[in-house]
Design brief:
single chain; 9 strands; nine-stranded mixed sheet; Spore Coat Polysaccharide Biosynthesis Protein SpsA, Chain A; alpha/beta; 10 helices
C-alpha cells in the first residue's frame, strides 16, 4: 500500500491522470484497474470517451464511483480528448495514459517521490515494458535521456508525469496535430525546464501488428520532422532513426534482451502511428 504521507510527513500532492478512449473496451478495464489499484489516496482520475459504440461505457460505469469525472461524447481526436481531461483536473502533478496501456505497480508513488526529491524538475518519466494484445510481455525498453542534440526522443507517455506549473507556461497539447502530439508537447516542456528519467520500468505499452498505409507513415514522419525543426531548429528527428549510428549504439547499450528484437528498433513515431491507426 502507498503511505498516506510523503517520507518527510508532508501531504501527498494531488495527482490528475487522464485517459482518452474510443472503442477500446477490450483493453480499457486493464487500464482503469492499473490506475485505481495503485492505491494513491490523492488521485483525480478522469476518462474522456469519444462516444464509443463498443462495451467501453459498460466498463467505465463499473468503476464510475472511483472516478473524478468521465463523459462519453464525440471529440475532435486524441489530443482534444486529453485536453478536455486536463482542463477538468486540479492536480499539482499531471499525466495521461492511453486506453490500451497499463501502469506498473507503485508507479505513482515512485513518481511523486521523485518530484519531492527533485522539485525543480518539470517532467519525470521512465522505461517501458512492451506487451502484446493479450498482455504478454514481449520486451523491455530502456533508452538514454532525451537529447535534442542527437535527435533522441525517448519520453514514453505512459510513464511521463509533469508539473501543472510547467503546463500553465507551455499550454496544452496541440490538437491540430495528428501523429506528433506527445513529441511536440514534451518537447515544449523540455524547453521549459529539467527532465528526470528514472531507471525504472513504469508502464506497459501495448504494441501489436496492424496494417497501415505508407501514406499515413509518410504524413506522420513529415509532421514529426516539422515540429522538431520548429522547436529545436534541427532536422535530426528525421523519422529514420534506425539508420543512424547513434541510435543503433544506444539500442545496443541500453535495451535489454527482448523476445522480438525488431520491436526495439522501431522508432517511437512508428509506435504512435500503429496506435493511432488501430484507434481510428
Amino acid at each position: 500500500m502507498i503511505p498516506e504521507t510523503m517520507p518527510d510527513g508532508s501531504e501527498l500532492p494531488r495527482l490528475t491522470i487522464v485517459t482518452p478512449s474510443y472503442n477500446q473496451g477490450k483493453f480499457l478495464e486493464a487500464t482503469i484497474r492499473s490506475v485505481l489499484l495503485q492505491g494513491y489516496p490523492n488521485l483525480e482520475y478522469i476518462i474522456i470517451d469519444g462516444g464509443s459504440t463498443d462495451c467501453s461505457i459498460e466498463v467505465i460505469k463499473r468503476y464510475e464511483k472511483y472516478l473524478f469525472y468521465w463523459h462519453s461524447k464525440k471529440d475532435k481526436g486524441q489530443a482534444d480528448a486529453i485536453n478536455q481531461g486536463l482542463n477538468k483536473g486540479s492536480g499539482r502533478i499531471f499525466g495521461w495514459i492511453n486506453s490500451d496501456d497499463v501502469y506498473v505497480k507503485r508507479t505513482l508513488y515512485k513518481i511523486i517521490k521523485a518530484f519531492q526529491a527533485h522539485p525543480n524538475c518539470v517532467v519525470v518519466h521512465g522505461n517501458r515494458i512492451l506487451i502484446n494484445e493479450i498482455g504478454e510481455v514481449t520486451g523491455w525498453v530502456s533508452l538514454p535521456s532525451f537529447d535534442p542534440e542527437t535527435g533522441i526522443y525517448n519520453v514514453c507517455s505512459e510513464t511521463a508525469f509533469w508539473q501543472r506549473s510547467a503546463m500553465n507556461e507551455v499550454g496544452l497539447l496541440n490538437a491540430n496535430l495528428q501523429f506528433a502530439i506527445d513529441l511536440e508537447f514534451f518537447s515544449r516542456l523540455y524547453k521549459q525546464g529539467k527532465f528526470l528519467k528514472l531507471d525504472d520500468y513504469l508502464g506497459y505499452f501495448r504494441c501489436y501488428s496492424e496494417s497501415k498505409s505508407s501514406t499515413i507513415a509518410h504524413i506522420g514522419r513529415e509532421e514529426a520532422v516539422r515540429e522538431w525543426k520548429q522547436l529545436f531548429g534541427s532536422e535530426n528527428r528525421d523519422g529514420d532513426l534506425t539508420q543512424r549510428k547513434s541510435f543503433l549504439q544506444f539500442l545496443r547499450l541500453s535495451a535489454e534482451l527482448i523476445k522480438q528484437p525488431r520491436l526495439i528498433g522501431m522508432p517511437y513515431l512508428s509506435y504512435r502511428l500503429l496506435q493511432l491507426n488501430r484507434n481510428s
